[in-house]
Write a structure and sequence with these properties.
TIM Barrel, 2 domains, 40% helix, 11% strand, Polysaccharide deacetylase family protein, NODB_dom, TAT_signal, Glyco_hydro/deAcase_b/a-brl
Length: 281
């Protein structure tokens, strides 16, 4: 029944004229007159009527918030205490955490051996420090980027690996040190902060030059001479003699490194079982 008051048709009359299409108005009426209208809206939704008006708006899935990586010894800028670095407890400050050991890998990148070494390190969740040769980086830049992407440290090991390195002076020395320094930065976006002399041949001239460019000299404490292919057993025994704080030397370039890969596959889990933690420099 219509209301004949002076204010014109009532709200119910308007709703009757509009039909069920006026869901927005029904909602308001429901607030005034109880839950009957809301029930009708729910029934309409269940039978598909006016479904386009009743579909809920999907809630967007929030993007995951990256967890900040905590500061660690390997992310700090090291200061040289003794030159060159052989022990990560006594030769740099701050010293490495207790039970740390540093695996360093020279002469790559190599298209056959570097991927095998990277796969092995990933399998055992080990980070290492790669000293790479400039002309090798130039030939295999994607491998160098893969080393960095895997979380390893990338470092300078001269442009052509000249021996004897400690005899070089002047322009030749600068070229051997600075060409790969720039190449690493160009290829990876990482400025190398560590340098290793081929054969561990240090001189006053080369130490001064690398210091001038903000690099620290790195040597080693354990050398299995794997570059000479002395046999897997020899490489294993030498590396298993390592103790906390030592810098270990291996190679992924410069020749057939199948013995090195086989030895690392044996040695890494055994050193970890002793409670030693591998860190990159």
């Amino acid at each position: 029944m219509a209301d004949t008051g002076t204010s014109g048709p009532t709200r119910r009359t308007a709703l009757a004229l509009m039909g069920v299409a006026g869901f927005a108005v029904l909602g308001a009426d429901d607030a005034l007159h109880g839950g009957a209208h809301a029930e009708r809206v729910r029934r309409a939704a269940s039978t598909g009527r006016q479904a386009q008006h009743l579909k809920p708006t999907p809630t967007p899935t929030p993007s995951p918030v990256p967890t900040p990586r905590p500061a660690s010894w390997t992310q700090q800028r090291l200061t040289l205490v003794k030159a060159p670095i052989r022990d990560i407890f006594t030769d740099v400050t701050p010293p490495a955490p207790p039970n740390s050991i540093a695996l360093t890998i020279d002469d790559g990148p190599h298209p056959e051996w570097t991927p095998q070494v990277l796969d092995l390190l990933a399998e055992h969740q080990v980070h290492a420090t790669f000293f790479q040769i400039g002309e090798q980086i130039q030939e295999w830049p994607k491998l160098t980027r893969r080393v960095v992407a895997a979380g390893h440290q990338i470092c300078n090991h001269t442009q052509t690996h000249p021996i004897p390195f400690d005899r070089l002076t002047g322009k030749r020395l600068r070229k051997e040190v600075l060409d790969p320094y720039k190449r690493v930065a160009d290829v990876t976006g990482v400025v190398p902060t560590l340098f290793r002399a081929p054969g561990g041949a240090w001189s006053k001239a080369n130490l001064e030059l690398i210091a001038e460019h903000g690099m620290l000299p790195v040597d080693w404490a354990v050398d299995p001479t794997d570059w000479s292919r002395p046999g897997v057993g020899h490489i294993r025994r030498t590396m298993l003699s390592a103790k906390a704080g030592n810098v270990l030397l291996c190679h992924d370039g410069g020749g057939d490194r199948s013995q090195t890969v086989a030895a690392l596959r044996y040695v890494i889990p055994r050193l970890k079982a002793r409670g030693l933690n591998f860190v990159s420099l």
